[in-house]
């Protein structure tokens, strides 16, 4: 066997070895909690600023949806989260074939009318949707997502609502795919790391 053939064979062996190393390299994994398999949502009916009347789980089909709890009187977490999501939405859309939407689930049905929600979420753009329901329908919906909120005492008018700061990702099949938990730093409001959310979404939607 002449030297030319030895070089060719050596090159082929090196290519095969390189391919095997690449295949066996650990793949980058999302830092979010990913549900495997994705979890179907329990049936629900809820009012939406994007529709006349109530909607159900079919409204989640055919799009990527980021859901979080909030309310229009929220002094910090909600406007911060919405502003941050607005800033990264073009990046998220660049990784997805289906539309990317944001749902803010109002946990203050006493004060958040559909019209108030429409005005509030509309400030952030057409891809931002407000949804609401009275507590008997709202609480099971929020709990099924793995989130929580507090209910004010009867008769209270000026109050804060404690609620989860996490963001839920629902895939275009209308199933819960991941949860992005908020970081809690002393002296700071709990927020989701938006840069990490973008990185994780790129992996999940790709």
TrEMBL record:
Binding site for Cu cation: 74, 78, 163
Signal peptide: none
GO molecular function: metal ion binding
PROSITE patterns named in the record: THIOREDOXIN_2 (PS51352)
Name of a matching Pfam family: SCO1-SenC
Disulfide links within the chain: 74-78
Residue ranges of every copy of the Thioredoxin domain listed in the record: 35-203
Family recorded in the similarity comment: Belongs to the SCO1/2 family.
Name under which the protein is recorded: SCO family protein
